[in-house]
User: What shape does this take?
Amino acid sequence: MADLSIEFCGVRFPNPFTLAAAPPTDSAEMVARAFEAGWGGAILKTTSVETEVVELAYPMMAGLDYEEKKLMGLENIDLISERHIGEVEKDVRALKKEYPDRVVGASIMGAKKEDWQELVRRLEAAGVDFIECSFSCPHGMPERGMGSTIGQDPELTERTARWVKEAAKRVPVVIKLTPQIADITAAARAVKRSGADGVCAINTLKSLIGVDLDTFVPYPNVGGYSTFGGYSGPAIKPVALRCVAEIAKAVDIPIAAVGGISTWRDAAEFLLVGATNVQLCTAVMHHGFRIIEDLIDGLDVYLEEKGMRSVKELVGRSLPYIVEHSHLSRRHKVVAAINRETCVKDDLCYIACRDGGHQAIELDSNRLPKVDEDKCKGCGMCATVCPVYDCIQLRPKVGAV
Amino acid sequence: MGVRARMQEISPEERKKGFDEVERGLAIHQALAEASRCLFCHDAPCVAGCPAGVDVPGFIRRLKTRNFIGAARLIRDANILAGVCARVCPAEELCEKKCSSTNLSEPIAIAALQRFAADEELRRGIRLPGPGVPTGRKVAVIGSGPAGLACAHELATLGHSVTVYEADEKPGGLLVRGIPRYRLPLAVAEAEVRAVLESSGVEIRSGVCVGRDISADEIRRSSDAVFLSPGLGYQSSLGVPGERLPGVLQAGEVLRKVAAGNDVRFTGRVAVIGGGNVAMDAACSALRCGASEVVVLYRRSLDEMPAWKREYEFAAAEGVKFEFLTAPTRFVEDGGGLAGVECVRTRLGEPDSSGRRRPEMIPGSEHMIEVRTAIVATGQAPWPGLVGLFRGLAAGKAGVIEVDQGSQMTSVEGVFAGGDVTSGGATVVQAVAEGKRAAKAIDAYLKRV
Assistant: This one.
């Protein structure tokens, strides 16, 4: 078996798979079951000082299905944990005692400097492995000047991160960022300047998941009203992947990736763009802690097939291949090649090319598509819509440089 | 929910011309789409439906994420003969019968997905767990069919030194000498048998028949425990005159020759007597070996026929004829050859001890079914001599060896048994499960004594 252990902010994780601060980590009992299943680490759901009032509204979850597939995306209007620092301290102690080889992080949120620093000091005393600060929750908390209100402002980010780092004598501090900012690298730079140890990207995206067409009330319906929520799940993975890659290219700081990661393949992609820790939540809420089995096994088999001994060999390997758009070759010419043997004659490539491309596909008298290579620019839209496996591929254009 | 994926099949007209595998497996996009239909139940009922307890949702999730090798390895953790069982399991009666998706659309094609995973791994090379830390204890396994292989492999991973005795020249039991190749290609069976033997490092003594080449006492003296898995080697007599005539053949012998690739040729009509899976295999094999027509004679009706529904439909689609409520009374000679089978019509009376209605002969209904060859495919049983070799071995109905259900231990201390010799004839996956269960019990026994 390959070595899946990896360091993040100086903390050694037995494997990179970590439960994000969210409902699955809202009690020691749940986290213990996750550790038994094989998770490398967990960040306990965001906690606060006892004076912080947390009142949740129900229902708080609403999913977005894509045709027949359930839960392409998930919106929640959950808030931070109702369990305050006193209870979370106990969880940390119990978990570190029972599972010394696993990583226990704790997520915190404070309204003022004293709160942030008290939380850090108490968690450190309880034996937590690292602290994560939510500067990024897009719903509910910003109304109180917390959450993404901080993360959207690099100055506030730097100042608040500095308070936390000041209080942390022993444990590393990680700042969880919001993708809802014009330039996420500015936020990551602010974290770096503050002296904090790492970033976690990304938190959920502010969303309105849908509207009930009968009652006109958006989802989730809380006694006749709704509100904007935080959007997560497979649908946001490309946004998260972009954010992680952008930070990795611009700022020298450890990155924990989170946002739409569901499978070992997703995890491998985030490692390839520079993350050294991967966090999951929505996939776990959908299918349970047991998904860790395939996460670990799939990554292990992949490394074996790539001839790699350690997961660390993946980190950042794709970054050199991401360049400015203006640096992309204009001499690289491809054309669509359609396998007329496997074509099922659904005309999807034809219509996509005609109404969304360059009118380069014609149908012959048997309704088989044929590419006019002079007209085809190689945009790739036809291959994107074709339902037949490997039927349409982009090939270098004959005669092109 | 999408529609269940189906493997491509060769048409009945084409397939009966030879022994090519009939089912062609799923293409990658079909496998991914089918895996995507799996609901990933928590306490999955399909797992309970599998005698070997394969983690079905676990392996399907691995397929879904394109971790094909991980999927195959997870299956092999529970069942070393993943590719074989994917082909020969009556999945529609086992795991798939319990599938939760049945209530939404159709059950997941679990066997087809298992086959996809196993075939992917087969292409790259099967990797099974190797031998454990040596314990210095010795176990003899008699018979290298599914039960024997499963037991031997599990024992080896537990660190025991295993010797497998196989009477035939080639290991594999009915995998290589019974199941027709159009269902299970020899290459698949041989690859899995080889992987089991090579990974585990067990010693295989082929061409050694216990009782003929080595005595049971010697085996008992040289081993700390014994596992008996010789299968069913004995064809019980029909009890009608003319059974020894040339042209009257035993199904087991015919299937063995066909599976071994011997040139078996039939001319004219062939009758197959019996209504089990072996009868269906014999009938379809006879068609492929030149028979102009094959007719199955069965003394009860279709409803009582023990052959699986899919086996019957498979044979019927190829044009095998069925004469139900027909019992042979004698084989008729014609100048040294066979002229035909004399039969009577039957009707069904009261249920017998098996719960099926007893066939009663209808007086005056004698008639001749003209065939050049008759294949007897009724009642295979354990070789009766086994009981004499291992003194104290208790046998029950139809000669099957009696075992403790939990441990597979026989009435003789330290002698365990599994597979068809204890079940009287069941599935490959059942035999694998029994072999593995016995290995664990043997391990516990060796720690005790």
Observations:
- Chain B has a mean pLDDT of 94.
- Chain B has three domains: 12-124, 138-233+381-448, 237-378.
- Chain B touches chain A through 19 residues (CB under 8 Å).
- Residues 309 and 365 of chain B are 29 Å apart (CA to CA).
